[in-house]
């Protein structure tokens, strides 16, 4: 009995749980009366261990669960007409002058008035008219914990990678299925992601250079992948058989295997036979179904300090489509820190210029983060800017996993890291903060009451 009590008090599974402490407290008086029967001791001990393990499991599980936030509200104050844009700007594939992490640390925290100015926005309609809407922000104090959770411990200079880690999703069997089907192509040469049945999230610099809207904006369109195959042809080449190009095998399902930490040969020989069957047919490439844009919305924060460089932390915009495509969209999510997630990985797919007509998927770990930006080394080429950056976590109280967009890939940028004018190059994504979530959600729904929880 003495040895049993010693193990109970020394083992953390016991001493950290109230059930075991209660057992020990009650056991001490009984020592004078004689030993406790083993049939009583064992069930209580087992219960203590099970309860402790369950508590530890719940703590670990929380790391894989989407946090629930009460969001601030962005409400419209006033809308006034503006003169029509000139549509004279030229697209910039690389931005410069962005204030980096150390540079941002030196800046004073914006006041409520400043934030309301930054979140006010321009709307351009398909007929060329333009308006300016001022906004008010409510409930900001309830999300102050978000900014305190950001951790930045190191900085790395971006380097040229030796091995290209991107995956071409060329087969319609995958590229037209969720989550890849949420990726769209913007006619100005960027990418975007469907965030509702008729709204596309993309980078602001894909439609505006900070001074004016891009050439061709008045004919802005969004391309959505569709299956162009015809019945009876099946994509076969000469002789009725085709082969995958080298390096294509198994790339399309790499996201599911990576996210679930699965090995490619888990299913053994059966899966090998299935792959050989797939290789007997040339993958069918999808084409685009183009849809006109009804209106666009860009935050005034994107116009801030144009003479001193563009503000990457507001490099996002919403495009409302004239027709609603019958494609599943991806919801927005807010996460306080990507680096603190178990894997710390992000994912995004876009239409890189060097692989025309193909969707390109990649994933990588976030190397550094600030309140507004994510710095990472995902391999990317021009054309992928505007892609939706997402992660995959469990829904609260459920075992089901769900992908949500936590950022917008802004692209390769030259960053003023220390605020002294010295430029370094990085791959940067704009993170979805509670305020940005509130603004984008308001743009999509037109009613801030729909955006109170994330």
From TrEMBL:
Residues 228-291 are annotated as: Disordered. Keywords: Glycoprotein, Secreted, Serine protease homolog, Signal. It is found in: Secreted. Its main location: secreted. One of its GO terms (biological process) is proteolysis. Residues 173-213 form the Peptidase S1 domain. One of its GO terms (cellular component) is extracellular region. It comes from the Eukaryota. Pfam families: Trypsin (PF00089). Residues 249-267 have a biased composition (Basic and acidic residues). GO terms for molecular function: serine-type endopeptidase activity. Residues 228-248, 268-278 have a biased composition (Basic residues). PANTHER family: INACTIVE SERINE PROTEASE 35, SERINE PROTEASE. Belongs to the peptidase S1 family. This is Inactive serine protease 35. It comes from Anabas testudineus.
């Amino acid at each position: 009995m003495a040895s049993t009590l010693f193990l109970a008090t020394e083992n953390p599974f016991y001493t950290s749980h109230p059930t075991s402490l209660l057992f020990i407290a009650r056991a001490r008086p009984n020592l004078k009366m004689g030993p406790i029967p083993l049939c009583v001791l064992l069930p209580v001990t087992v219960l203590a261990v099970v309860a402790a393990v369950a508590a530890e499991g719940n703590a670990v599980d929380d790391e894989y669960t989407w946090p629930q936030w009460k969001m601030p509200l962005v409400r419209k104050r006033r809308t006034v007409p503006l003169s029509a844009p000139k549509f004279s700007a030229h697209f910039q594939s690389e931005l410069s002058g962005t204030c980096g992490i150390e540079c941002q640390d030196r800046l004073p925290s914006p006041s409520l008035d400043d934030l309301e100015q930054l979140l006010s926005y321009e709307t351009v309609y398909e007929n060329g008219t333009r308006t300016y809407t001022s906004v008010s922000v409510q409930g900001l104090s309830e999300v102050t914990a978000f900014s305190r959770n950001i951790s930045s411990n190191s900085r790395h200079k971006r380097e040229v990678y030796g091995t290209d880690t991107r995956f071409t999703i060329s087969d319609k069997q995958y590229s037209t299925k969720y989550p890849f089907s949420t990726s769209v192509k913007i006619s100005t040469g960027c990418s975007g992601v469907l965030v509702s049945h008729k709204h596309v999230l993309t980078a602001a610099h894909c439609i505006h250079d900070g001074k004016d809207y891009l050439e061709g904006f008045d004919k802005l369109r969004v391309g959505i992948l569709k299956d162009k195959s015809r019945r009876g042809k099946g994509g076969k080449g000469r002789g009725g058989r085709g082969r995958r190009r080298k390096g294509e095998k198994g790339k399309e399902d790499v996201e599911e295997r990576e996210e679930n930490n699965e090995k490619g040969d888990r299913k053994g020989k059966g899966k090998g036979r299935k792959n050989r069957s797939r290789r007997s047919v040339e993958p069918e490439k999808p084409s685009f179904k183009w849809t006109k844009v009804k209106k666009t919305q860009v935050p005034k924060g994107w116009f801030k300090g144009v003479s001193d460089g563009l503000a990457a932390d507001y490099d996002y915009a919403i495009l409302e489509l004239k027709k609603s495509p019958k494609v599943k969209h991806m919801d927005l999510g807010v996460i306080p820190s990507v680096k603190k997630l178990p894997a710390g990985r992000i994912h995004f797919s876009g239409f890189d210029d060097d692989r025309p007509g193909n969707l390109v998927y990649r994933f990588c770990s976030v190397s550094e983060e600030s309140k507004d930006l994510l710095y990472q080394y995902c391999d990317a080429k021009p054309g992928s800017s505007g892609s939706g950056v997402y992660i995959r976590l469990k829904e609260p109280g459920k075992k089901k996993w769900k992908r949500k967009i936590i950022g917008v890939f802004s692209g390769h940028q030259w960053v003023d890291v220390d605020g002294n004018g010295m430029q370094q190059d990085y791959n940067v994504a704009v993170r979805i903060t509670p305020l940005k979530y509130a603004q984008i959600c308001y743009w999509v729904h037109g009613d801030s009451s729909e955006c109170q929880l994330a």
